[in-house]
Amino acid sequence: MRRRIDTTTLVMWLIGVLIVSGVAWGTFNTVRANPYSRENWIDFVIFGLAQGCLYALIALGYTLVYGILRMINFAHGEVFMAGAFTGYFVAQPLFDSGFLVAQPVISLILIAIVSMATSILVAYLLERICYRPLRNAPRLVPLITAIGASFFLQYTFAGLYGNGVKTYPTVPSLTGEWQIFGIGILKTQAVVIVASIVLMLVLWLFIQYTKTGKAMRAVSEDKETAALMGINVDATIVRTFIIGAAMAGSAGVLYALLNKQVQFYMGFQPGLKAFTAAVLGGIGNIPGAMLGGVFLGLFESVGPSLFLEGLKIPAPYQLKDAIAFTMLVLILIFRPTGILGERLSKKKA
Q1: Can you tell me whether residue 289 is helix, strand or coil?
Q2: How far apart are CA 269 and CA 267, in angstroms?
Q3: Residues facing residue 179 across a β-bridge
Q4: Which fold has domain 41-301?
Q5: Could you tell me if residue 341 is left (phi over 0), alpha (psi between -120 and 50 degrees) or otherwise beta?
Q6: SS3 state at 177
Q7: Helix (H, G, I), strand (E, B) or coil at 162
Q8: Between the CA of residue 240 and those of 69, 124, 223, what are the distances in Å?
């Protein structure tokens, strides 16, 4: 048995080395040929930052729930979808009435409130109906339940809102770009990046310095001991789902600003990417989820042009998803606990 494990590890390392060698060779050829201008690379980086910030916000829901319950909530992508999709039915009437044009800040706040409230409601019902009765069940049971809940939510919202694509109205004040230190940044991308950073900073401060945050960290460390110390474990778990859902709901509005279109199936791919980001950063580690999301977004945006262009691969940008999951494979080979390391409780360790 020991020999088989060693052989498997060796094969994985060889695969990792081959991938890294291919990436290095492609990067060398791209840099040597220099097919893109400085402005093109800046655009790639800015778009990657904006996309990565969205992944980070969604990934926080995965990592918070895992930190508390040691389970992966695969329905979290649909929590994100529910907020973004519902927000459309607020954004469109506001645009039709002219209020969105006249008062864009107030309008976006209203859309965000509705989106976050919807995501929070869906997450609360998931925890209360689907996960709480299975809290002491084997780990595979809530995992399968989460996948079933994901499909249920997808087709529930398809039935409620229709299965067609809805297009968010354009906010006139966010069209065009700003010049920052001589660099042109699309206004929507700037808003997404700044809003995401503020939300992530607020969440980190909340977890570190509030009574609820301390209770969440205590429950994550040891549920039984936390209960003996007077912490309401059930209420803390509910608050964890609510906070993660609020981040996902806010990400839904920012996603709509950036990509315009929403539909009932929209949560699958961002949810999968956000889960990848959480694993990249270190599942259960909040700063790791933030870093993993930004890291993934940058590699998705810059990677196809930097790595694959030099390998003479046609239409390299169509392989951005392959690059994202290749990065996950490399991290799992060379650092299985993620960039910052998986945060485990002392009891589990």
Answers
A1: helix
A2: 6
A3: 184
A4: ABC transporter involved in vitamin B12 uptake, BtuC (1.10.3470)
A5: left
A6: strand
A7: coil
A8: 10, 10, 14
At 34-81, the pLDDT tens digits run 888 888 888 889 999 999 999 999 999 999 999 888 888 999 999 999
pLDDT in tens, 143-195: 899 999 999 999 999 999 998 899 999 888 888 888 887 788 899 999 999 99
**Which tokens belong to 47?**
């778009």
**Which residues are within 8 A (CB) of 272 and not within 5 positions of it... i.e. 6 or more apart?**
77
Kindly report the backbone phi and psi dihedral angles of residue 171, in degrees, each rounded to the nearest multiple of 5, phi listed first.
Answer: -90, 110
Mean residue pLDDT across the chain: 87
Burial (CB < 10 A; 0-12, 13-18, 19+), residue 40, is: exposed
Q: Which two tokens stand for residue 276?
A: 């990848």
In the predicted model, is pLDDT for residue 343 greater than 70?
Answer: no
CB atoms under 10 Å from CB of 264, counted, come to: 24
Residues 308-322 have pLDDT tens digits of 777 777 777 777 777
Paired tokens of 295: 């890291």
Q: What per-residue confidence (pLDDT) applies to 156? A: 94
Model-wide pTM > 0.85: yes
Q: Counting beta carbons within 10 angstroms of the beta carbon of residue 126, is it exposed (0 to 12), middle (13 to 18) or buried (19 or more)?
A: buried
Long-range contact pairs involving 318-323 (C-beta distance under 8 Å, separation at least 24): 321/269, 323/299
Bridge partner residues of 133 (DSSP) = none
Q: How confident is the model at residue 3 (pLDDT cuts 50, 70, 90)?
A: very low
User: What DSSP element (H or E) covers 150?
Assistant: helix 140-161
Per-residue burial over 42-69, b = 16 or more CB atoms within 10 Å of its CB, e = otherwise: ebbebbbbbbbbbbbbbbbbbbbbbbbb
Alpha-carbon gap, residue 222 to 147, rounded angstroms: 27
